[in-house]
Design brief:
Shape: globular
Mean pLDDT: 89
Order of helices and strands: HHHHHHEEHHH
Largest sheet: 2 strands, antiparallel
Strand content: under 5%
Structural class: mainly alpha
């Protein structure tokens, strides 16, 4: 019997639209904050990983492209990528890159640095993205954050597609920084509630 699709089964459209809209206007990158705060909020309030399991449009996109369209080798992800050392190491690396992006944004807001109109892939390769920015009534810092945040989102999506092709479709979910953070929050919440009993 075929299962009826729920509204949240189509959130992959949001992830795809986000990448496309940001390509044409970098200020759409601010919408990515939804994917940043919503998983944390759900894990803090409910103590579970409902966002990862149900609402993550990116995971759905990998399932669709890798699973239904067959662009995945469907191999098990290596043990070292599932290990806590790798997952927490990647989370720390992600935080370093994220806070560096926030630092540069702060410098632009303060007027100490000029706006960098480039997206950085894999935190290394600068891609000129000038056509995606046409000026704004807001501060240059607003645009700088958009360039930086879109770089983070695009880079993590590319890493997800690489692991999707090499391994199972949702292999990115194994070491996704948001997934690791929500897991830590859930563990802390369960530990706190068990101490109260």
């Amino acid at each position: 019997m075929k299962q009826t699709k729920k509204w949240y089964d189509f959130l992959w459209i949001f992830s795809l639209a986000y990448l496309i809209l940001g390509f044409f206007n970098i200020l759409f990158a601010w919408l990515g904050l939804i994917c940043f705060f919503l998983p944390l909020g759900i894990s803090v309030l409910n103590g579970n990983k409902a966002y990862c399991n149900k609402y993550c449009g990116r995971g759905q996109l990998f399932s669709l492209v890798g699973g239904r369209f067959g662009l995945s080798r469907k191999k098990d992800i290596p043990k070292w990528m599932r290990s806590g050392y790798f997952r927490y190491g990647f989370l720390i690396f992600f935080f370093i890159m994220f806070f560096q992006m926030l630092f540069v944004t702060g410098m632009v807001f303060a007027g100490a640095k000029d706006l960098r109109t480039a997206v950085t892939l894999l935190w290394t390769f600068r891609v000129p993205w000038r056509f995606a920015y046409h000026g704004t009534l807001c501060s240059a810092g607003v645009a700088q954050f958009a360039f930086g945040f879109y770089s983070v989102m695009l880079t993590s999506t590319i890493l997800g597609f690489i692991t999707m092709i090499l391994f199972k479709p949702r292999s990115w979910c194994v070491y996704c920084p948001m997934g690791t953070m929500t897991q830590l929050i859930c563990k802390a919440k369960h530990a706190a509630s068990s101490q109260k009993i």
